[in-house]
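INFO  loader      accepted 1 record
INFO  loader      residues=472
INFO  predictor   begin
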Amino acid sequence: MSELWTPRNMDRRRFLRLGAASAGALLVACSVDEGDPSNGGGGGNGGPRPAPGAFGRPLEDSGGLLDLPRRFQYRILSDPDTPLASGAPNPGHPDGMAAFEGPGGATLLMRNHELEDDEGPRVEGENPFDSDAAGGTTVLVVHPDRRVTDSYVSSSGTDSNCAGAATPWGTWLTCEETDSDEHGYVFEIDPADPESDLSRSPLRDMGRFAHEAGGVDPETGIVYLTEDNGPQSFLYRFLPDDTSGRPGSLAEGGSLQALALADDEGVDGSGLEQGRAYQESWVDVDPEVANDSAAGAGAVRFTRLEGAWFSDGVLWFNDTNGGAEGLGQTFRYRPAAESLELFYESSEEGAMKAPDNAHVTAWGDFFFVEDWRDDNRVMGLTPDGKVYEFAANRLNDSELTGPCFSPDGRTMFVCFQDPGITFAIWGPFPGPSAARRARLAIAAPPFDLGLTGLAIADVRQSHCNHRKRWLM
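INFO  predictor   done
INFO  writer      dumping tokens
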């Protein structure tokens, strides 16, 4: 498969377009006090790195696309006018993503395309699961200098590919957010072996339902799966028969269960108390009628489960419309403690609204993107319970999707689902911190994120208050 890693010929128009995107990368202009010793060691982008959660508020992008803090830049990797390397149109509606290590330091950026049959541009592949279905996945090969050197279809013929989960063995589980017309499954994609028979083989034992996202426990091989099927959705886990952790091992089958609580049968997740640890009790589920089966077995009912991420022994997942105000909830499930916690419930749009895709950063902050009716952002939550705005959609009201980082942690990737733009973001991101990630895994839930999370940035940026847009 070596031909995949060689940059393909690029026509002059496309070269100029990518070059213009590079030249238009934004260096924003107001950050934390660079003399503050708590900022930590210097990064590779010039100057000391800011303390986690202290990037400063995003500043208005003169290009009208993506607001970022000072000293952060972006480059457009892909847009509707950027065809794949084959010349085929770039498929629309990018959603969940994951970044894998490629040859020579390249990143293989796997992208879902949440397309239904009547939407486009379609994912046009050579080995589809269902030739009538428009969805699938593509890969951008991103050089360390953040330029795309290749792009290709990695799976096709699926429906409404929303989010998914990266496996510890380097594959992507893409999830169909539907249960219609013989769809509603999870598929395993190997970014280094695109459009293989594996990519078109549904993992039926993982259940047929409106899949959203997931997370894989590297210690046990258990796959956790969220369901987006409002007003009644469930959290599932798949117990694989083959725990060898290799591409294709999940296809050997397994059993499906839904999360229940030991003392509360059929409880509503929106009624859970923040900060209380609830004892788990998993119930068996019929994978072919998963939602009805979970409901009948007394599983915990959530509203619409979306983004999920497994990190440091914890599964984080979001209920995008959960809570008393319908603004969203973030849950933390700890398998070792056999407990579920409501980590945070939003009561105001400024702090969190409709949390979707999620990611725990290498330095130990919880990142999530928003899927609200307008003013969507990339938000961060620190182990100290402080919330901050990292990026904001300046272009339109589209949701942001797919936040993830390159294997070296130097580049963040995110998309606007509409019109279909994929960005690379870089700047003084903090270095990895296992200790801080561990703190996040056990931190006491913040009872009032409110606007207090801006306190770090507020104090250190008093010299440029006139340039801020406060969440007040």
